[in-house]
Amino acid sequence: MSRTAMNPAKAALTKSLRREAGRWLKSAREAAGLTQAELAERMGLRYYTFVSQVENGLGRVPIETQAIWARTLGLDPGPFARTLLRYYEPELHRLLFEDGVDAGDAPLAAQA
């Protein structure tokens, strides 16, 4: 099954949001007083260049490591993950946190 090509406007927005996420992560790292190499070492990453790639918007913090990143930066994992979701998956973030409708409020038949 082939993937559908991404709309150029959506691709530009995704790129922009990744860069914003990277700037946010960089400021959190700097606030924690860590270099990229120190952050990578404390998280058990083999190469600090991954941190650089994420901070430059060329990569994402993997879901399975978001709690580790948060704790290493001295941040609470829940709000950290929500912030990244706002950058990485803005539509999902909107559906989950901004519509004012909680899925738990919907009838079970509508949730299926």
Automatic annotation (TrEMBL):
Region forming the signal peptide: none
Stored Pfam families: HTH_31
Domain of life: Bacteria
Entries under PROSITE patterns matching the protein: HTH_CROC1 (PS50943)
GO molecular function, one term: DNA binding
Residues covered by the HTH cro/C1-type domain: 25-80
The protein, known as: HTH cro/C1-type domain-containing protein
Organism expressing this protein natively: Caulobacter vibrioides OR37
